[in-house]
Write a structure and sequence with these properties.
28% helix, 5 strands, 171 residues, five-stranded mixed β-sheet, single chain, alpha/beta
């Protein structure tokens, strides 16, 4: 533990760069990991947690808005629906990355965990498929009322079971 504390002190005491230190029992750390980047980046999005009540379940989601000035009438928005037993992050955070890219280009994004999935309430095995369709309706109704959203410029996208929800909403 003393060796690790010494390593940490060395890391924190050096301004901008720390020399590699060999600690028995720990893998070596490449020098590129020890360079401290002090450049500040401008955020391309704002994220906030959102909740929607649907079919007796609390659906948990994330709403991304661009940092650009809001256009008159609100941002165009995409609501993204995950697949069966998925969640609003996707495998390896792919839905999160997609939301960031869209927000970086002036498009707001809403991502929700459907009933019984991710952080939302319910037990997945006990949720009938029609509940997901109703979840989609309730999410669309709620998101269209957000003050940042242009209710006339909402798109829906989905993967797997989320495609069924988007087709249902488009009909």
């Amino acid at each position: 533990m003393k060796k690790f504390a010494s390593f940490l002190c060395l890391l924190l005491s050096n301004s901008g760069f720390a020399a590699p230190v060999e600690v028995p029992g720990f893998p070596s750390i490449p020098e590129t990991y020890l360079t401290i980047i002090e450049e500040k980046t401008v955020p391309q999005e704002r994220c906030r947690s959102v909740n929607v009540q649907s079919c007796g379940y609390n659906l948990v989601g994330v709403f991304h808005t661009p940092t650009t000035p809001m256009p008159e009438g609100g941002y165009p928005t995409v609501i993204f629906f995950h697949g069966f037993r998925g969640n609003c992050y996707g495998s390896d955070g792919v839905y999160r990355e997609l939301a960031y890219l869209l927000a970086s280009n002036g498009i707001a994004v809403a991502r929700f965990d459907m009933a019984g999935c991710g952080n939302s309430e319910g037990i997945c095995d006990q949720i009938p498929a029609r509940t997901y369709l109703r979840n989609g309706e309730d999410i669309l109704a709620a998101v269209s009322k957000y003050p940042e959203v242009n209710a006339h410029r909402i798109g829906v996208a989905g993967v797997s079971l989320g495609c069924h929800t988007t087709i249902h909403l488009a009909s």
